[in-house]
Protein backbone atom coordinates (compact mmCIF):
# COMPACT_ATOMS: atom_id res chain seq x y z
CA UNK A 1 0.00 0.00 0.00
CA UNK A 2 2.80 2.42 0.87
CA UNK A 3 4.49 1.87 -2.49
CA UNK A 4 1.24 2.44 -4.41
CA UNK A 5 0.41 5.56 -2.38
CA UNK A 6 3.76 7.15 -3.26
CA UNK A 7 3.33 6.15 -6.88
CA UNK A 8 -0.06 7.89 -6.94
CA UNK A 9 1.13 10.91 -4.94
CA UNK A 10 4.94 11.40 -4.99
CA UNK A 11 4.63 14.31 -2.52
CA UNK A 12 3.78 11.74 0.17
CA UNK A 13 7.20 10.05 -0.09
CA UNK A 14 8.84 11.89 2.86
CA UNK A 15 5.82 11.12 5.03
CA UNK A 16 5.67 7.46 3.96
CA UNK A 17 9.44 7.05 4.43
CA UNK A 18 9.14 8.40 7.97
CA UNK A 19 6.25 6.06 8.69
CA UNK A 20 8.25 3.12 7.36
CA UNK A 21 11.18 3.96 9.61
CA UNK A 22 8.84 3.94 12.62
CA UNK A 23 6.72 0.92 11.77
CA UNK A 24 9.06 -1.73 10.42
CA UNK A 25 8.65 -0.85 6.76
CA UNK A 26 4.87 -0.28 6.89
CA UNK A 27 3.12 3.00 5.95
CA UNK A 28 1.17 2.99 9.22
CA UNK A 29 1.10 1.47 12.68
CA UNK A 30 -0.20 -2.11 12.61
CA UNK A 31 -1.61 -3.54 15.83
CA UNK A 32 -1.63 -7.24 16.60
CA UNK A 33 -4.36 -9.48 15.17
CA UNK A 34 -7.36 -9.59 17.51
CA UNK A 35 -8.80 -13.05 18.05
CA UNK A 36 -12.37 -14.17 17.67
CA UNK A 37 -13.84 -15.10 21.09
CA UNK A 38 -15.47 -18.12 19.41
CA UNK A 39 -13.58 -20.25 16.89
CA UNK A 40 -15.89 -23.22 16.32
CA UNK A 41 -19.48 -22.99 15.09
CA UNK A 42 -19.25 -19.21 14.83
CA UNK A 43 -21.13 -18.58 11.56
CA UNK A 44 -24.58 -17.05 11.92
CA UNK A 45 -25.30 -17.31 8.17
CA UNK A 46 -24.54 -19.95 5.53
CA UNK A 47 -25.67 -20.44 1.94
CA UNK A 48 -25.73 -24.15 1.19
CA UNK A 49 -25.81 -25.44 -2.40
CA UNK A 50 -28.17 -28.24 -3.43
CA UNK A 51 -26.44 -30.63 -5.82
CA UNK A 52 -25.09 -34.13 -6.35
CA UNK A 53 -22.47 -35.79 -4.15
CA UNK A 54 -20.09 -37.22 -6.76
CA UNK A 55 -18.91 -39.99 -4.40
CA UNK A 56 -22.37 -41.31 -3.51
CA UNK A 57 -24.46 -40.02 -6.42
CA UNK A 58 -27.05 -38.78 -3.92
CA UNK A 59 -28.78 -35.42 -3.73
CA UNK A 60 -26.86 -33.40 -1.16
CA UNK A 61 -27.26 -30.08 0.66
CA UNK A 62 -23.78 -28.75 1.41
CA UNK A 63 -20.98 -26.78 -0.23
CA UNK A 64 -19.69 -27.02 -3.79
CA UNK A 65 -16.19 -28.52 -3.76
CA UNK A 66 -14.80 -25.63 -5.81
CA UNK A 67 -15.89 -22.81 -8.08
CA UNK A 68 -17.98 -23.57 -11.13
CA UNK A 69 -15.59 -21.48 -13.24
CA UNK A 70 -12.83 -23.97 -12.37
CA UNK A 71 -15.01 -26.89 -13.42
CA UNK A 72 -16.43 -28.01 -10.06
CA UNK A 73 -20.09 -29.02 -9.92
CA UNK A 74 -20.08 -31.66 -7.17
CA UNK A 75 -21.42 -30.85 -3.69
CA UNK A 76 -19.99 -32.25 -0.47
CA UNK A 77 -21.59 -32.66 2.98
CA UNK A 78 -20.80 -30.18 5.76
CA UNK A 79 -20.80 -32.56 8.74
CA UNK A 80 -17.06 -32.19 9.45
CA UNK A 81 -16.76 -28.41 9.05
CA UNK A 82 -15.83 -26.80 12.36
CA UNK A 83 -16.94 -23.25 11.58
CA UNK A 84 -20.61 -24.22 11.06
CA UNK A 85 -22.84 -24.57 14.18
CA UNK A 86 -24.56 -27.90 14.78
CA UNK A 87 -28.06 -26.47 14.35
CA UNK A 88 -27.18 -25.28 10.84
CA UNK A 89 -25.80 -28.72 9.98
CA UNK A 90 -28.99 -30.28 11.31
CA UNK A 91 -31.10 -27.90 9.20
CA UNK A 92 -29.08 -28.73 6.07
CA UNK A 93 -29.37 -32.49 6.70
CA UNK A 94 -33.09 -32.26 7.37
CA UNK A 95 -33.78 -30.24 4.22
CA UNK A 96 -31.60 -32.72 2.34
CA UNK A 97 -34.11 -35.46 3.26
CA UNK A 98 -36.93 -33.31 1.89
CA UNK A 99 -35.03 -32.82 -1.39
CA UNK A 100 -34.20 -36.53 -1.68
CA UNK A 101 -37.89 -37.42 -1.30
CA UNK A 102 -39.05 -34.75 -3.75
CA UNK A 103 -40.34 -35.55 -7.24
CA UNK A 104 -38.42 -32.49 -8.43
CA UNK A 105 -34.72 -32.91 -9.22
CA UNK A 106 -31.78 -30.73 -8.16
CA UNK A 107 -30.57 -27.91 -10.38
CA UNK A 108 -27.75 -28.78 -12.78
CA UNK A 109 -25.47 -25.76 -13.39
CA UNK A 110 -24.23 -27.24 -16.68
CA UNK A 111 -27.56 -28.03 -18.35
CA UNK A 112 -29.62 -25.51 -16.34
CA UNK A 113 -32.22 -28.22 -15.75
CA UNK A 114 -33.68 -29.15 -12.38
CA UNK A 115 -35.23 -27.21 -9.54
CA UNK A 116 -33.70 -27.22 -6.04
CA UNK A 117 -30.75 -24.83 -5.86
CA UNK A 118 -29.96 -23.39 -2.43
CA UNK A 119 -30.72 -23.25 1.26
CA UNK A 120 -29.79 -20.07 3.10
CA UNK A 121 -29.69 -20.41 6.89
CA UNK A 122 -29.49 -17.65 9.49
CA UNK A 123 -29.02 -18.54 13.16
CA UNK A 124 -29.18 -15.98 15.96
CA UNK A 125 -26.48 -16.66 18.53
CA UNK A 126 -28.40 -14.54 21.04
CA UNK A 127 -31.98 -15.81 20.74
CA UNK A 128 -31.34 -19.15 19.03
CA UNK A 129 -33.88 -18.29 16.31
CA UNK A 130 -33.42 -20.15 13.02
CA UNK A 131 -34.38 -18.65 9.64
CA UNK A 132 -34.45 -20.69 6.41
CA UNK A 133 -34.69 -19.38 2.85
CA UNK A 134 -35.29 -22.18 0.33
CA UNK A 135 -34.21 -21.28 -3.21
CA UNK A 136 -35.32 -23.06 -6.38
CA UNK A 137 -35.54 -22.53 -10.12
CA UNK A 138 -39.26 -22.80 -11.02
CA UNK A 139 -38.52 -23.82 -14.64
CA UNK A 140 -41.98 -24.30 -16.26
CA UNK A 141 -43.95 -25.07 -13.12
CA UNK A 142 -47.43 -23.55 -13.09
CA UNK A 143 -48.57 -21.26 -10.29
CA UNK A 144 -50.67 -24.10 -8.92
CA UNK A 145 -47.69 -26.46 -8.92
CA UNK A 146 -45.52 -23.83 -7.24
CA UNK A 147 -48.17 -23.33 -4.58
CA UNK A 148 -48.09 -27.06 -3.83
CA UNK A 149 -44.30 -26.95 -3.52
CA UNK A 150 -44.57 -24.10 -1.00
CA UNK A 151 -47.36 -25.83 0.93
CA UNK A 152 -45.27 -29.03 1.11
CA UNK A 153 -42.28 -27.07 2.43
CA UNK A 154 -44.37 -25.36 5.07
CA UNK A 155 -45.99 -28.63 6.16
CA UNK A 156 -42.60 -30.38 6.32
CA UNK A 157 -41.11 -27.81 8.73
CA UNK A 158 -44.34 -27.18 10.63
CA UNK A 159 -45.70 -30.71 11.07
CA UNK A 160 -43.31 -33.17 9.43
CA UNK A 161 -39.76 -34.34 10.04
CA UNK A 162 -38.49 -30.75 9.77
CA UNK A 163 -40.40 -29.78 12.91
CA UNK A 164 -37.37 -30.88 14.98
CA UNK A 165 -35.38 -27.97 13.50
CA UNK A 166 -37.64 -25.51 15.35
CA UNK A 167 -37.69 -23.05 12.44
CA UNK A 168 -38.64 -19.53 13.53
CA UNK A 169 -38.91 -18.07 10.01
CA UNK A 170 -39.32 -19.75 6.60
CA UNK A 171 -39.05 -18.05 3.19
CA UNK A 172 -39.22 -19.19 -0.45
CA UNK A 173 -37.01 -17.67 -3.15
CA UNK A 174 -36.96 -17.86 -6.96
CA UNK A 175 -33.34 -18.23 -8.15
CA UNK A 176 -32.99 -17.88 -11.90
CA UNK A 177 -31.29 -15.70 -14.46
CA UNK A 178 -32.82 -12.24 -14.56
CA UNK A 179 -34.34 -11.27 -17.90
CA UNK A 180 -33.82 -7.79 -19.31
CA UNK A 181 -36.46 -5.40 -18.09
CA UNK A 182 -37.92 -7.87 -15.61
CA UNK A 183 -37.50 -8.07 -11.84
CA UNK A 184 -37.30 -11.40 -10.03
CA UNK A 185 -40.19 -12.12 -7.67
CA UNK A 186 -39.48 -10.98 -4.09
CA UNK A 187 -38.87 -13.48 -1.32
CA UNK A 188 -42.13 -15.03 -0.16
CA UNK A 189 -42.73 -15.52 3.56
CA UNK A 190 -44.19 -18.98 4.23
CA UNK A 191 -44.14 -19.52 7.97
CA UNK A 192 -43.29 -18.05 11.36
CA UNK A 193 -41.83 -14.61 11.97
CA UNK A 194 -40.71 -12.24 9.22
CA UNK A 195 -37.44 -11.43 11.05
CA UNK A 196 -35.10 -12.89 13.62
CA UNK A 197 -33.25 -10.95 16.32
CA UNK A 198 -29.56 -10.84 17.21
CA UNK A 199 -27.82 -9.25 20.20
CA UNK A 200 -24.61 -7.28 19.73
CA UNK A 201 -22.82 -5.20 22.39
CA UNK A 202 -25.98 -5.13 24.48
CA UNK A 203 -28.17 -3.93 21.60
CA UNK A 204 -30.98 -5.90 19.96
CA UNK A 205 -30.93 -6.09 16.15
CA UNK A 206 -33.74 -7.10 13.82
CA UNK A 207 -32.34 -9.07 10.86
CA UNK A 208 -34.32 -9.61 7.65
CA UNK A 209 -33.49 -12.39 5.13
CA UNK A 210 -31.42 -10.34 2.68
CA UNK A 211 -29.90 -7.75 5.02
CA UNK A 212 -26.15 -7.70 5.66
CA UNK A 213 -25.06 -8.65 9.17
CA UNK A 214 -21.54 -9.68 10.23
CA UNK A 215 -21.38 -13.49 10.04
CA UNK A 216 -19.44 -13.89 13.32
CA UNK A 217 -21.42 -12.15 16.07
CA UNK A 218 -18.88 -12.46 18.89
CA UNK A 219 -16.01 -11.28 16.68
CA UNK A 220 -18.21 -8.42 15.41
CA UNK A 221 -18.20 -7.07 18.97
CA UNK A 222 -14.38 -7.08 18.88
CA UNK A 223 -14.52 -5.46 15.44
CA UNK A 224 -16.86 -2.61 16.43
CA UNK A 225 -15.02 -1.93 19.70
CA UNK A 226 -11.83 -1.67 17.63
CA UNK A 227 -13.49 0.85 15.29
CA UNK A 228 -14.33 3.05 18.29
CA UNK A 229 -10.85 2.61 19.76
CA UNK A 230 -9.14 3.61 16.53
CA UNK A 231 -11.33 6.61 15.73
CA UNK A 232 -12.22 8.01 19.20
CA UNK A 233 -15.59 9.66 18.33
CA UNK A 234 -16.92 12.39 20.65
CA UNK A 235 -20.15 14.31 21.21
CA UNK A 236 -18.96 16.71 18.49
CA UNK A 237 -18.71 13.87 15.92
CA UNK A 238 -21.18 12.95 13.18
CA UNK A 239 -20.61 9.35 12.07
CA UNK A 240 -21.45 8.65 8.42
CA UNK A 241 -22.09 4.89 8.28
CA UNK A 242 -21.64 3.94 4.61
CA UNK A 243 -23.02 0.56 3.47
CA UNK A 244 -24.63 0.38 6.90
CA UNK A 245 -26.78 -2.74 6.44
CA UNK A 246 -29.02 -3.12 9.50
CA UNK A 247 -27.22 -0.18 11.14
CA UNK A 248 -25.10 -2.27 13.47
CA UNK A 249 -21.87 -0.20 13.33
CA UNK A 250 -23.60 3.19 13.60
CA UNK A 251 -25.93 2.09 16.40
CA UNK A 252 -23.02 0.61 18.37
CA UNK A 253 -21.20 3.96 18.04
CA UNK A 254 -24.30 6.10 18.72
CA UNK A 255 -23.65 6.50 22.46
CA UNK A 256 -20.08 7.60 21.78
CA UNK A 257 -20.90 10.32 19.21
CA UNK A 258 -23.34 13.15 18.62
CA UNK A 259 -25.05 11.97 15.41
CA UNK A 260 -25.19 8.93 13.11
CA UNK A 261 -26.24 9.04 9.44
CA UNK A 262 -26.44 5.69 7.65
CA UNK A 263 -26.46 4.95 3.91
CA UNK A 264 -27.59 1.59 2.50
CA UNK A 265 -28.73 0.26 -0.89
CA UNK A 266 -31.31 -2.26 0.38
CA UNK A 267 -34.59 -0.69 1.51
CA UNK A 268 -35.36 -3.72 3.67
CA UNK A 269 -32.08 -3.29 5.54
CA UNK A 270 -32.82 0.41 6.14
CA UNK A 271 -36.22 -0.55 7.55
CA UNK A 272 -34.36 -2.92 9.89
CA UNK A 273 -31.91 -0.17 10.87
CA UNK A 274 -34.71 2.28 11.70
CA UNK A 275 -36.54 -0.39 13.68
CA UNK A 276 -33.32 -1.27 15.53
CA UNK A 277 -32.78 2.38 16.51
CA UNK A 278 -36.34 2.59 17.83
CA UNK A 279 -36.17 -0.74 19.69
CA UNK A 280 -32.95 0.35 21.43
CA UNK A 281 -34.20 3.88 22.26
CA UNK A 282 -31.47 5.49 20.14
CA UNK A 283 -32.62 8.88 18.89
CA UNK A 284 -29.53 10.42 17.26
CA UNK A 285 -29.58 8.18 14.16
CA UNK A 286 -31.08 8.52 10.67
CA UNK A 287 -30.82 6.02 7.81
CA UNK A 288 -31.24 6.60 4.07
CA UNK A 289 -31.88 4.27 1.09
CA UNK A 290 -29.75 4.61 -2.03
CA UNK A 291 -26.39 3.96 -3.63
CA UNK A 292 -23.62 5.65 -1.70
CA UNK A 293 -22.27 7.25 -4.87
CA UNK A 294 -25.69 8.82 -5.56
CA UNK A 295 -26.84 10.12 -2.15
CA UNK A 296 -23.70 10.46 -0.06
CA UNK A 297 -23.24 14.17 -0.76
CA UNK A 298 -26.80 15.09 0.29
CA UNK A 299 -26.61 12.87 3.38
CA UNK A 300 -23.35 14.50 4.49
CA UNK A 301 -25.05 17.92 4.21
CA UNK A 302 -27.32 16.78 7.05
CA UNK A 303 -24.40 16.55 9.47
CA UNK A 304 -24.94 18.90 12.42
CA UNK A 305 -21.66 18.25 14.25
CA UNK A 306 -18.37 19.96 13.52
CA UNK A 307 -16.31 16.80 13.14
CA UNK A 308 -17.28 14.17 10.54
CA UNK A 309 -16.08 10.59 10.80
CA UNK A 310 -16.91 8.27 7.91
CA UNK A 311 -17.11 4.53 8.56
CA UNK A 312 -17.01 2.50 5.35
CA UNK A 313 -17.85 -1.21 5.28
CA UNK A 314 -18.25 -1.84 1.53
CA UNK A 315 -18.64 -5.07 -0.46
CA UNK A 316 -15.54 -7.15 -1.11
CA UNK A 317 -14.53 -5.16 -4.20
CA UNK A 318 -14.43 -1.86 -2.27
CA UNK A 319 -16.22 1.48 -2.46
CA UNK A 320 -17.57 2.96 -5.69
CA UNK A 321 -15.23 5.62 -7.12
CA UNK A 322 -17.88 8.39 -7.09
CA UNK A 323 -18.63 7.76 -3.41
CA UNK A 324 -14.92 7.99 -2.66
CA UNK A 325 -14.70 11.36 -4.45
CA UNK A 326 -17.57 12.71 -2.31
CA UNK A 327 -15.62 11.69 0.80
CA UNK A 328 -12.53 13.54 -0.38
CA UNK A 329 -14.58 16.68 -1.12
CA UNK A 330 -16.18 16.88 2.34
CA UNK A 331 -14.21 19.66 4.05
CA UNK A 332 -15.38 18.73 7.55
CA UNK A 333 -14.39 15.09 7.08
CA UNK A 334 -11.18 14.64 9.02
CA UNK A 335 -11.22 10.91 9.78
CA UNK A 336 -12.23 7.76 7.98
CA UNK A 337 -12.43 4.13 9.09
CA UNK A 338 -12.33 1.56 6.30
CA UNK A 339 -13.32 -2.05 7.02
CA UNK A 340 -12.24 -4.60 4.43
CA UNK A 341 -12.55 -8.37 4.27
CA UNK A 342 -10.26 -8.33 1.20
CA UNK A 343 -7.69 -5.51 1.47
CA UNK A 344 -6.07 -6.45 -1.86
CA UNK A 345 -9.38 -5.95 -3.68
CA UNK A 346 -9.91 -2.61 -1.92
CA UNK A 347 -6.31 -1.40 -2.42
CA UNK A 348 -7.30 1.04 -5.18
CA UNK A 349 -9.61 2.83 -2.71
CA UNK A 350 -6.69 3.49 -0.36
CA UNK A 351 -4.55 4.82 -3.22
CA UNK A 352 -7.34 7.09 -4.49
CA UNK A 353 -7.98 8.49 -1.01
CA UNK A 354 -4.33 9.54 -0.81
CA UNK A 355 -4.04 11.12 -4.27
CA UNK A 356 -2.88 14.77 -4.55
CA UNK A 357 -5.43 17.58 -4.51
CA UNK A 358 -6.91 18.20 -7.96
CA UNK A 359 -10.14 19.14 -9.73
CA UNK A 360 -11.36 15.60 -9.09
CA UNK A 361 -9.87 15.00 -5.65
CA UNK A 362 -10.69 18.01 -3.49
CA UNK A 363 -9.26 18.49 -0.02
CA UNK A 364 -6.10 17.13 1.56
CA UNK A 365 -5.23 13.45 1.06
CA UNK A 366 -6.49 10.84 3.51
CA UNK A 367 -3.67 8.55 4.60
CA UNK A 368 -3.53 5.43 6.82
CA UNK A 369 -2.46 6.13 10.39
CA UNK A 370 -3.28 2.91 12.23
CA UNK A 371 -4.64 -0.50 11.30
CA UNK A 372 -5.76 -3.61 13.15
CA UNK A 373 -6.77 -7.02 11.79
CA UNK A 374 -9.62 -8.91 13.45
CA UNK A 375 -9.92 -12.67 12.97
CA UNK A 376 -13.56 -12.70 11.87
CA UNK A 377 -13.20 -16.01 10.02
CA UNK A 378 -11.39 -18.67 12.10
CA UNK A 379 -10.29 -21.84 10.24
CA UNK A 380 -9.82 -19.80 7.05
CA UNK A 381 -7.01 -17.67 5.64
CA UNK A 382 -9.21 -14.55 5.67
CA UNK A 383 -9.10 -11.65 8.11
CA UNK A 384 -11.06 -8.41 8.44
CA UNK A 385 -8.75 -5.39 8.33
CA UNK A 386 -9.70 -2.05 9.87
CA UNK A 387 -7.70 0.89 8.48
CA UNK A 388 -7.99 4.26 10.20
CA UNK A 389 -7.15 7.24 7.95
CA UNK A 390 -6.71 10.97 8.62
CA UNK A 391 -6.13 13.97 6.42
CA UNK A 392 -2.52 15.07 6.10
CA UNK A 393 -1.56 18.63 5.15
CA UNK A 394 1.47 18.24 2.88
CA UNK A 395 2.33 21.93 3.29
CA UNK A 396 2.87 21.41 7.01
CA UNK A 397 4.96 18.24 6.87
CA UNK A 398 8.29 20.00 6.71
CA UNK A 399 7.48 22.61 9.37
CA UNK A 400 7.25 20.35 12.42
CA UNK A 401 9.50 17.78 14.02
CA UNK A 402 8.52 14.19 13.18
CA UNK A 403 7.70 13.40 16.82
CA UNK A 404 5.30 16.37 16.99
CA UNK A 405 3.82 16.12 13.51
CA UNK A 406 0.06 16.32 13.32
CA UNK A 407 -1.80 13.87 11.16
CA UNK A 408 -4.76 16.13 10.43
CA UNK A 409 -6.10 19.58 11.02
CA UNK A 410 -9.78 20.07 11.74
CA UNK A 411 -10.66 23.56 10.54
CA UNK A 412 -14.08 23.46 12.19
CA UNK A 413 -12.44 23.29 15.62
CA UNK A 414 -9.58 25.61 14.74
CA UNK A 415 -7.02 23.41 16.42
CA UNK A 416 -4.40 20.91 15.36
CA UNK A 417 -4.72 17.44 16.91
CA UNK A 418 -1.84 15.14 17.76
CA UNK A 419 -1.90 11.37 18.03
CA UNK A 420 0.65 9.23 19.82
CA UNK A 421 1.76 5.90 18.40
CA UNK A 422 1.40 4.02 21.67
CA UNK A 423 -1.68 1.77 21.72
CA UNK A 424 -1.90 2.15 25.51
CA UNK A 425 -1.83 5.95 25.24
CA UNK A 426 -4.47 5.86 22.48
CA UNK A 427 -6.75 3.81 24.74
CA UNK A 428 -6.23 6.30 27.58
CA UNK A 429 -6.97 9.18 25.22
CA UNK A 430 -10.26 7.52 24.16
Write a structural description.
The chain has 430 residues and is α/β, with parallel strands linked by helices. It has 2 domains: 1-30 and 216-396, Vaccinia Virus protein VP39 (Rossmann fold, 3-Layer(aba) Sandwich); 45-194, OB fold (Dihydrolipoamide Acetyltransferase, E2P). Helix content is 27%, strand content 25%. The protein has 11 helices and 19 strands. An 8-stranded mixed β-sheet has the order 1-16-17-15-14-11-12-13, sandwiched between helices. Strands 4-3-2-5-6-7-8 form a 7-stranded mixed β-sheet. A hairpin with a 4-residue loop joins strand 18 and strand 19. Helix 8 runs parallel beside helix 9 (321-329). The radius of gyration is 24 Å and the shape is elongated.
The succession of helices and strands, N to C, reads: HHEEEEHEEHEEEEHEHEHEHEHEHEEEEH
Strand line-up across the major sheet: 1-16-17-15-14-11-12-13
Radius of gyration: 24 Å
Shape: elongated
CATH superfamily of the largest domain, by name, is: Vaccinia Virus protein VP39
Distance between the termini: 27 Å
EC number: 2.1.1.35
Region (Disordered): 405-430
Keywords: Methyltransferase, S-adenosyl-L-methionine, Transferase
Protein name: tRNA (uracil(54)-C(5))-methyltransferase
Concise overview:
The chain is of the alpha/beta class.
Amino acid sequence: MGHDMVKGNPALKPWVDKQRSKYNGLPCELWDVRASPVCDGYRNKCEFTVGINEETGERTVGFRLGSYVQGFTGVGPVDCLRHIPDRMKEAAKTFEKFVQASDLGVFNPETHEGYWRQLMVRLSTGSGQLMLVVGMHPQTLSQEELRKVKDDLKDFFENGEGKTCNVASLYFQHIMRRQAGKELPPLEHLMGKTHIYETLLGLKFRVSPEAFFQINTSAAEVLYNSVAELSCPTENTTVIDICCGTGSIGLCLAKKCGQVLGVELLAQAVDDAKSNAKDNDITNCDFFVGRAEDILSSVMNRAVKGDILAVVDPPRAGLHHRALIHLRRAEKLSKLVFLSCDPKAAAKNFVDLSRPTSKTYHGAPLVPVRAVPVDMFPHTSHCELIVYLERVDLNQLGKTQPEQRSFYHNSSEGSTKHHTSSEEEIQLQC
